[in-house]
């Protein structure tokens, strides 16, 4: 089997031209040739801002670009028909599709309800401010444009535990509804990080659980997606997703690969969450992203021997989805921590060419981010993605033993002709690293496909070679015999 490779096929500032699904459909065959095996697509349902909504301000989970709601039929990315056509084309090309699932909150309510609530300290969610009072809460979701199609469920304040706006007083704040408690089993930041934004869903409400399970099974039936990307899981009780995923898989008979976004630099927090959900999902390796970010900011003063320290891919490689950047870390976003451009080739080599982890490449790196004048790295990434597809197989030998120059080799396997490679990375002065790549290559010649070295090297009788890398760059050595040999 070929190596797995996920691509996040969107960035925050895509044009609001309702055309992404059509673009995905056109790109499917090309993505397959590059080695992409799965696509993470953005939220497909109607957001509060209509076609201007990136998809995270969720209004109606059942409106996949089918109903005239929030001033539009299509979402930012297209219509339901376009979405399903894109999924079919991707799957026809052997590419799995993961749907972005945002269940933490809702926005754009159809009506206000008068609810007794207490205001809480934004920085300490256990500290109440003042006395309880009646507020105007945007918690009434009736979806008049859908007219009960697919679901007759109507949301009211009892299905939420808090909100951040009092319509009566025209005042913002963190308001918890009377008789409600912040959900447990969430991140302990700010005391209790249940509340994030909008009308915060109460996952202890059984009606909510049943409706969300029904919706997920409807969604799978309608779209035939292959799995989920779960948004903001640190704000949702771990037991909810543990039970939800088990139930949906059981009812649908589908494997449904799932990866959650738990935004924490602490690998122990991520491992604890995996235990709490009984390993029902993988997680994005946020600590690894921050190691890349810190290294890029250090401009050579980072100890590369520590690049995998405190990461999920080191401790739980089977559950780690590795990434360099995403829509949250790109410039201008709340979690901005964009890896500097000079280090991107090294970072992508570190996730694409190693045995451990399930790598996810970012659309904003691949196609660029015009909003911030960030250029496409397509040529570089095409090369590295193809290397993953064709060469990065077999036993791995690590040489992560120097603060400035690290490397590893892959011996290749019988299933992939001419597979095997050697990677050398430097964040400072370049150098040569003697590494073992396998006695089966004794006498063979290797060339640096990245263009660092203009010469070939010969593997010695012990199966070792002296692999070179330039200053602040990555070299990837693959077998290439001289012409005529």
What can you see in these coordinates?
It is a single chain. With 485 residues, the protein is of the alpha/beta class. The protein is 24% helix and 26% strand. The protein has ten helices and 24 strands. It has helices at residues 20-34, 80-92, 206-223, 238-252, 267-276, 286-298, 312-315, 344-352, 363-367, 378-390; strands spanning 6-8, 38-41, 46-47, 58-60, 96-101, 105-106, 111-121, 124-140, 160-166, 171-177, 199-201, 227-230, 257-260, 282-284, 320-323, 358-362, 396-399, 405-410, 421-426, 431-436, 445-448, 457-458, 464-469, 474-479. The chain has an eight-stranded parallel beta barrel with strand order 1-2-5-12-13-14-15-16. Strands 6-11-9-10-7-8 form a six-stranded antiparallel beta sheet, with no helix packed on it. A six-stranded antiparallel beta sheet has the order 17-18-19-24-21-22. Strand 9 and strand 10 (171-177) form a beta hairpin. Helix 8 packs parallel to helix 10. The two termini are 30 Å apart. 48% of the residues are buried.
